[in-house]
Write a structure and sequence with these properties.
The protein is an alpha+beta fold. It is built from five helices and five strands, in the order βαββαβαβαα.
Length: 163
């Protein structure tokens, strides 16, 4: 029986988001690229599609990690390119994600800007940008932006990090 589920997540640079979710137990695959949501404003935004084993890591854990590893409360001028979102594939996950966001709001002093949106389409990044951190951990961008997020992940969510 296939236990893999999927959710798409957007918030910051997809290189950062990809590295975070590649580091987690129960995550089997991370597709880096651009996601569009179902709506009138269905433009593409940087995001990842996370394929995960729901018996090993839950949707709540994934959303909580996502909120704490990007600026989920800033409604800055780059939000069209870096939409803070949880993209769902099923109606049941939409309800769950909304409840999870409402519950996790308590962890933040200012309102979350993260939206729950229905997934519409995915365009993968160019091959040279996929698995970016895994192939380039010493590059300045990785050291400056991704490594601190991975350190936070190890510190705050260590029980979910691959050994």
């Amino acid at each position: 029986m296939d236990t893999l589920k999927k959710i798409a997540l957007g918030g910051g640079c997809h290189w950062c988001t990809e590295a975070i979710f590649q580091a987690l137990e129960g995550v089997e695959q991370v597709d880096q690229g651009f996601v569009a949501q179902e709506s009138d404003a269905s433009s593409f935004s940087e995001a990842v599609v996370v394929h995960f084993d729901g018996h090993r890591i839950g949707l709540k854990d994934l959303i909580e990690i996502h909120l704490h590893t990007h600026n989920a409360t800033a409604n800055h001028s780059m939000r069209n390119k870096y939409r803070s979102a949880v993209y769902v594939f099923e109606e049941e996950d939409h309800r769950k994600a909304e409840m999870i966001l409402n519950e996790l709001q308590r962890d933040f002093k200012t309102p979350l800007v993260t939206k729950v949106l229905y997934f519409k389409a995915f365009k993968p990044s160019e091959v040279q940008f996929q698995n970016y951190y895994l192939g380039n951990p010493q590059k300045p961008f990785c050291e400056r932006h991704i490594a601190p997020k991975l350190a936070l992940l190890s510190e705050r969510f260590s029980k979910h990090v691959k050994q």
